[in-house]
Amino acid sequence: MQNLGYYNGKYDLIENMMIPMNDRVCWFGDGVYDVSCARNRIPHLFDAHIERFFNSAKLLRIEMPMTREELKKLTFEMMDKVDSGNVMIYWQVTRGTAARSHEFPKDVKANFWMTIRPKEVAVPEKPITLISVEDTRYLHCNIKTLNLIPNCMAEQAAKDAGCNTAVFHRGDIVTECAHSNVHIIKDGKIITHNADNLILPGIARANLLRLADVAGIEAVQRPFTMDELMNADEVFTTSTTALCSRVSTVDGKPVGMKDEKTFKKLQDVCFGDFFAATEKK
Ligand code: PLP
Fold first, then answer.
1. What is the pLDDT of residues 140-166, one digit of tens each?
2. What CA–CA distance (Å, rounded) separates 176 from 167?
3. 244 and 175 housed in the same domain
């Protein structure tokens, strides 16, 4: 199969799959998701993604319909059905199927779906460009919920401005990008917003911090300002699907691009870790 969509035990090509109108995802976006990438059918940082998925569900009081081990087994089974071994795996769990009513339905099992699509992770050829957008999201950005309208609005505003993505700020404080975490380098040190309720605790971010430590690059986890971002030596983003991307402009003004040595070292360890962990055995 070229891709795969799975919903509560049934699977087919994504474009053939249907879900019930009463799935609470349709009424309320009432669910959480997680995304990981695999090469050679080996998912990268798989346990960390599973852990965050289960934790997001717990924070929304959604009871997972399977164990971590069952999720792993099912994902490998479904990956085997897809032609390419280089894929993006998307999991989603929603509170269940019930007539529209705000309160949680009783005695309803959570719905689980998964999609698997071909995806090549590759070192980007050129830096990316950002626009800045006031972060008007709510205060639960640490939960990977399906409520992504502000992120979609910001991403589209970036595309309309001819840029790659948007960086959010709450007043003066930079939080994260529309679908990645953002970091700066100043005087050889990484500065990144601490993992509180204002940002998603990115798996690629956590891996970056681990790898930076091994490489002897210091990292400070604290809020930083738009002014610090505009005057940083380097600005870069991390995410599961793009790993590590350098930023060259924000709102059309040049930023960073002044400490290639430190940035390249970080980008090399991020991609090196992905390729080593997903090498064919
Ligand atoms: N922040 C937001 C809002 C995201 O949507 C994402 C990824 O989807 C990230 C950060 C990066 O998280 P990860 O490294 O786990 O992909």
1. 999 999 999 999 999 999 999 999 999
2. 6
3. yes
Q: How many helices (H) and strands (E) does the chain have?
A: 7, 16
Range of the domain at 60: 4-118
Q: Is 121 in the pocket of ligand 1 (CB under 6 A)?
A: no
pTM beyond cutoff 0.85 = yes
**pLDDT at res. 281:** 83
d(CA 125, CA 74): 35
- Pinpoint the alpha helices (H) of the chain: 24-28, 46-59, 68-79, 149-160, 203-214, 226-230, 260-277
Residues 211-227 have pLDDT tens digits of 999 999 999 999 999 99
Does 152 lie in the same domain as 272? yes
**Ligand 1 neighbour 183 (Cβ under 6 A):** no
Q: From the CB of 179, is ligand 1 less than 6 Å away? A: yes
**What spacing in Å lies between the alpha carbon of 200 and ligand 1's midpoint?**
6
Please tell me which residue in 126, 144, 186, 264 is annotated as part of the active site.
Answer: 144
- Looking at the structure, tell me whether residues 203 and 159 fall in a common domain: yes
The amino acid at 206: A
Mean of pLDDT values over 92-108:
97
Please tell me the distance between residue 238's alpha carbon and the centre of ligand 1 in angstroms: 8
Number of domains in the chain: 2
CB neighbours (10 Å) of residue 16?
9
269 & 159 share domain = yes
Give the strands of the sheet with 42-43, arranged side by side. Answer: 10-12, 4-7, 111-118, 87-94, 31-39, 42-43
Note whether residue 123 is domain-resident. Answer: no
Same domain, 178 and 225: yes
